[in-house]
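Supplementary notes for students who missed Thursday's class. We covered one full example, reproduced here. Read the sequence, then the structure, then the short commentary at the end.
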Amino acid sequence: MTGTSKIFGNRKKFCIKYELIQDPDTDVSPLLSASWGKIELWVAGRNLTRALIRQEETTSAEVYLLPIAEWFVDNWDMIFHEERLPEQGAFPNASDWHIQGIKKLSTSNPDFDERLKLRQIWYKKHGLASCLEGFQFPDLIFRRYENVMELSWDNFEQEQLPSNVRLSEKSGNAYLDVDDVSVVIKDWCSDLIATIKTSFKTPCSLNYLEDKLHSLNKADKFIDRLKILTGIDLDSLSLTEKNKKYLESCFTRSDHSSEECGVIKNVSSPIVMFRSASPYISEFDTNALLELIQVQAADHNLEQQMIRMPKSPPISPEESTEEGYNLALDFRESLYEKYGVPEDEALLGVYDLESVILPELGVHIEAIELEDQSVQGAAIWQSGKIPQIILNSTNKSVYKPWVRRMIVAHELAHLVLDGEGKGVSLISNPWAPYLIERRANAFAVMLLAPDSVLVKSFKATQNRLDNIFDMKEQLGVGVISLCYHLENRGFIEYSERETILESLDAEK
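Structure (token representation):
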């Protein structure tokens, strides 16, 4: 069968263009054969299906389209609600984890087979090319990322296959509004099913897929989707009755507005919090965190005190660092305009971050004792409540003054930059989103040591190690963080930084 091409979505955001054409293969079922067609996939203005076939350029891929629609419908809830990757690490996006994670893993590692298995299970739920084995097709991975969709791709594995096809778009990623992706996919699936059905004089067996597609917006899926969004198995944890009721109320308060398309867009901050926690979080820690959230005091004057600069997630390590730096400088400017804090003064003494600045902003610091010692802190702010910076008393870093200041500044970054109307809720630990954490780190060090402060304390003629220790006292920034920051800002060279760090190791 042949037909006219149809376009769904916006090429500058997310777009599917397709056309059914005559299947050259006669050895497949009539239903599958009827779905043979051309498809273009566009993400953020880039055509992922553009390729060279025997040195001739084409803009579309020719594949069976029915398996794609089936994959979207079968994996819908995981595609649009699961954020957590199977492994922790400094991975900017899901495609980077999928490719780089396995490259770094030695086959001699005793966990190799198990980690490879987990990788495949996760990939089959999120990697579009997994439904078209044997075809040269963009390795596009769909993943929820906070309240947006992350679309990332890396065609490294595709390029290892013997083929006359070479995809033009090698790798990339984009963050899009949930509706910009979900509505396009749902409309495309619906149209494809209807178009295939018209090619059969008698009813074809597509009712199963049509029924599943229509059932995506049923209200009975809402709670299950919220549980996927949390990223942990809450049902397996023994919560106190008080915490169970509180969590149920959070589920009830969460956004139902987008149910007609089968996707939850916005969720309340207590639910979001667990997406950044370890998947192995203990019952004790879960109960402790829920207890802490519930005792947050109300304060409706905070909009006048707090300085908020909510931003979308950064898309690359370089952007996260640069954005963190620039936003910290904007924040310092706002501190000067609103509270008279000079931009070229260290946040110590009369301008101390913890004892002076945070109270001005209406931010409270609370201590919590968690079993997970890898957690340094957390940032929690629900609408209408006092924003909190949480410090984990079982993490030894919080007792080191300069490290504590960095942790506090880091958590302040989350309160200033992250979250939307539903609030901020993020636990800083190895499982937290890498780019969000990297941006918060950059914000923290620039907040404490902007260039205007560095130039006053950096002595080019002084013994470098002595100068670094003097600067630590003057700025309240740890030596290691300070060394990397001085290199990033062009005050010292890479070799000089390495020499300083080697000297520190020798003195231990």
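Commentary. DSSP finds 21 helices and 15 strands in the chain. The mean pLDDT is 87. If anything here is unclear, bring it to office hours.
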